[in-house]
Amino acid sequence: MLRNFSLKLFLIICLSAVAHLTVYSASFDLVKGGKAATLLVDSEDYPGVVRAVHDLQKDVQRVSGIKPEVQQTSVVRPSRGKVIIGTIGRSGLIDRFIRQGKLRVDEVRGQWESYVRQMVDGNMVIAGSDKRGTIYGVYDISEQIGVSPWYWWADANPAHSDNLGINTTRYVQPSPRVKYRGLFINDEEPSFGSWSRKHFGGYNSKMYTRLFELILRLKANYLWPAMWNARFNEDDPMNPKLADEYGVVMGTSHHEPMMRAHKEYLARKDSVGPWDYKTNKVRLDRFFREGIRRNRDYENLITIGMRGDGDVAMGNGDDRENMRVLRDVIRGQRSIIRDEYGTTEVPQLWAIFTEVQRYYDAGFTVPDDVTLLFCDNNWGYIRRTGPQRERQRKGGMGLYYHIDMNGGPWNDRWVNTTTIPKLREQLNLAYQTGLDRIWIINVGDLKPKEVPIDFIMHYAWDPESVKPGDETAYLQRFSAQIFGQSLADDVADVIRRYSKYNLWRKPEVQTTDYFSVENNNEARRLIILWEQLRQDAERLKRRIPERLQDAFYQLVYYPAMASAGVAEMYLYVGLHNYYAEKGITTHYADSAKYLFELDKELSHAYNHAISGGKWEGMMSDKHIGYTKWSMPDKNTLPKIIPVRKVESGLRPLTEADCQPTEAREMVIPAYRYQRESGGGWQFLPDLGRGKGCMGARDVTKAFCGDILQSPYLEYEVETGDTSSIQVAIGILPTQDVNPERGLRLAVSVDDEAPRMIDARRGLVDTFNEYTPENLKSSRTLKPLPAPNRQLYLAGHGKKLRNEVFDNIRWLDETFRVDNTKRRHRVRIYLIDPEVVVDYLVINPDNARPSYFGKITWP
């Protein structure tokens, strides 16, 4: 079940976009003996290509100290040892080699964002199929010589090398599998906004060109700009012009149609009038037309449709009326696009976000050439896979995905709480079902989300090449690229652990009473895990070279130490309060107060000490003391209750009097099965709460025929003398991704016929029938009325206890068994392939509920 992929193998086959970046000893000399190869580019090539060549010039100097010459010419004089860069059809240098038969470009000509690298007459030639294809070829050389895409945004200073070489083996970069791959800077106040104003004077081109460069170095191509307090096209008129020159496709967010920022509307509200297409069509159409006309000469991906004023629902809640108005909106917008472009054949998207999902489910659609942009649930679980009926649509389908959230169900803004295994599992589900035209990722302030951003942008290039188990190798590659091979394993391990622990319970939804004191020492065990992570980060910091200390602080140390501090603080307050209620005095409150002060110091260092104050303002989010979804006004220490006074004449209790007893429940990680039948399951390493989960091998294949022919996992359990067994199955909180079919699995005990459970609605007693009478409430499930269909945990009276925040959904049922048998057989059947099983709890201890039970800790 457990597959070990070496880093070397991963570099060869896993991420084709960067797999060729290893430095080879037999190579073209870029720098040798104090001299650098000349860089040649045709001055008539795209400005973005010429600019990228100058970036390569700087990168060579960063690494070697030698600055190569850049020649902008269309003539190649007979000589050897040059790097010749250009775009097919745009560069006289490249086109001449093609005509002479010296450069083979059949695999890339006419392709999207592709390039070939080949030796010609002793020169290294990079020929792109289009503007970005050439630019990516240039930046691949930068990575090959040791310059990370994060050299500026994370201060990843490259190691010095006197000699630099480029692999001479002919290489063809194929087109990406996801066409548009982009970032959405969002929820950018107070952190990103205050940082931009402090260091650049605002959201201007001096700041955005830094972001454009990062996007291209990551082999991405698309941007939704900051919009809370910004107007990309008006804050600096050079913003859109330079985006186009750099080669970045611009768009606007899901609720900002026709290339207009919401703040542009607010600035003109008196003249434009109400944001109501039903009553104000003429003036809104004029507003939309001005946006398209202003930006039509640039490369854009136009958002169409309309929501309410700001990021809210349209109208008064009447879906039928809203859909009628929305049809008029889209008809009017398409007419404007046709007028301004002379055609509607320009890239467009319609975002199926929040309430718009209801419109789509009710049959609302848009013209076939418009991309349907499906969304996640704001916390990283996609709401729909690509519907079969849409797979052939001309505009294709895409995904709007969050690794940052400000709003419902709750804020998730401060640090990275997204693991690479979770990203791979959800994005693979999206890709395999046809959501491959656009991936736009809400990244919040960008920092400190560098690791998931890096993975998503590389994964989008070729999702097929990254299989379950490759995630660790990816983290090792990322770590090695910045910190070197000798530190890669340890750096990757700290990143893996802090993000995994954060996903157990994200910082913004921490409280003091989720983790059990009585059941299995849960709270103390968590403190030990977090404390071990803190110690490992401290030890690792001492091994990091001075040139990389700032990078280490941003990418590893701060997110690990600060996440651990917040989690431990809540745990310590919880322990204190538990014992204080019993009249026991402990040291736990002091520990919590210390960690609260430490959090201030860590954030202050991020804002003021590292990188000479370069990131001042970037770590300004309040992240302790949430009582509702929105950010609190200040960080607040969790409430510490006074120690209860012991009644006169009674012996005061000690902590030893309150030591927990062993819980009777049996916890089985899903991968600890005794038998597997049918070959439909696979192990998904490091996904979920423990060491891994079990999911479908083929996420497009449902087993809706004879249930007894479905693949199953079998577990043997020993329960003693009992006439019934309660089986609770913990699955990942997958959304209602295919409402026409369901989200089902089946379970059986011994020889009883399998019972199928629809994870959206409760228990279904028969395989082919669902009736409301078959709904069954249990200790963990409380079905909600349509259209939510989300199953919320009862949580024993604890607030905020639901499947999204817990990152697990519980399905349970009780089976009658032969009480003369002590050993029983439990089977889990695969029905719908999106279901991922984390672990099973047999006979849960309902009297002393715990968050984890006795899972195998990572």
Contiguous low-pLDDT stretches (5 residues minimum) are 1-25, 762-799
Distance between the termini: 16 Å
Tally of DSSP helical segments: 21
Structural class: alpha/beta
User: Rg, please?
Assistant: 29 Å
Strand order of the largest sheet: 12-11-10-17-16-15-14-13
User: What average pLDDT do the residues reach?
Assistant: 90
Q: What kind of oligomer do you see?
A: single chain
Largest sheet: 8 strands, parallel
What general form does the structure show?
Answer: globular
Description:
By secondary structure, the protein is α/β, with parallel strands linked by helices. 32% of the residues lie in helices and 17% in strands. An 8-stranded parallel beta sheet has the order 12-11-10-17-16-15-14-13. Strand 13, helix 12 and strand 14 (348-351) form a beta-alpha-beta unit. Helix 14 packs parallel to helix 15 (450-461), helix 17 (485-504) packs antiparallel against helix 18 and helix 17 packs parallel to helix 19. The radius of gyration is 29 Å and the shape is globular. Mean pLDDT is 90; it is low at 1-25 and 762-799.
Summarize the SSE layout with pairings.
Blueprint lengths: L6 H7 L13 E6 L2 E2 L2 E3 L5 H18 L5 E3 L10 E5 L4 H8 L15 E6 L2 E6 L2 H14 L19 E4 L3 E3 L6 E6 L5 H10 L4 H13 L4 E3 L7 H4 L2 H9 L2 E2 L11 H6 L1 H4 L8 H15 L6 E3 L14 H23 L6 E4 L4 H6 L9 E5 L21 E6 L17 H13 L2 E10 L5 H12 L9 H13 L1 H20 L17 H20 L7 H32 L7 H22 L56 E4 L5 E3 L3 E5 L6 E5 L15 E7 L5 E8 L12 E6 L5 E4 L3 E3 L38 H4 L2 E8 L6 E8 L6 E6 L16
Parallel strand pairs: 3-4, 3-5, 5-7, 10-11, 10-17, 11-12, 13-14, 14-15, 15-16, 16-17
Antiparallel strand pairs: 1-2, 1-8, 6-7, 6-9, 18-29, 19-22, 20-21, 22-28, 23-27, 23-29, 24-25, 24-28, 25-26
Helix pairs in contact: 2-4, 6-8, 11-12, 14-15, 16-17, 17-18, 17-19, 18-19, 19-20
